[in-house]
Amino acid sequence: MTNTTRIIIFAKYPQAGNVKTRLIPEIGADRAAILALQLLKHTVYEALKTNLEVELCVSPHHDHVCWKTIDISNNPKLAWSSQSSGDLGERMANAVRNNLISQPNRHVILIGTDCPALDQDKLLQAAEQLNFHDSVLIPALDGGYVLLGVKAYSITLFEGIEWSTSTVYKSTKNKIQQLGWSCYHFPQHTDIDTSADLHYLPATWIY
């Protein structure tokens, strides 16, 4: 049976004042929301360019009228789903579990929308490594991760993690080792979260 790979993008609607809040003191709520929208679109477009399955897992609910205002909403290659309740770990765990239960021969790559360096090539490299390893990780400079790829489900990966801290990558790596899974670790990438991160944005971006 041939394995398929699905990229699940976790995203929040880019409403001013509710996204990129650590950037608001530096650039203001409106510009922060514009930047969040650019990051969202960039992530979706790069994922779709891989020709892998792509699912956008969103908050609020995917049927909410707000999503109709973004021009990615009508792309027929993009599947939509809604994030479950719970903390970030519970929501990611549910998304991964739902995908692997519905199609056991599927590989899953879980990403957010904060890393402009996460392009088509790197996503395809991650998918390729899942053919040889049980999991893949791309660590973030701040101690988190920008990509987690798995081909089996375990709640262990998402429990007991202090989310949004500098220990997320290390804790996840340790949990993968506890499970006895092999893991391919890519070099660090940078999320765009604070004003110090802005120079990692493409020079052509305007926000």
- The gross shape turns out to be globular
Radius of gyration: 16 Å
> Could you tell me the mean pLDDT?
94
Largest sheet: 7 strands, mixed
Distance between the termini: 46 Å
The structural class is alpha/beta
Major sheet: arrangement of strands: 3-2-1-4-6-5-7
Q: Note the beta-strand portion.
A: 15-25%
Helix proportion range: 25-40%
The DSSP helix count reads: 5
Could you give the count of β-strands?
7
The unreliable regions are none
Helix and strand pattern = EHHEEHEHEEHE
Description:
By secondary structure, the protein is α/β, with parallel strands linked by helices. It has helices spanning 24-27, 29-49, 88-102, 120-129, 168-179, and strands at residues 4-12, 53-59, 78-82, 106-111, 135-139, 145-150, 183-185. A 7-stranded mixed beta sheet has the order 3-2-1-4-6-5-7, with helices on both faces. The longest helix has 21 residues, at 29-49. The mean pLDDT is 94.
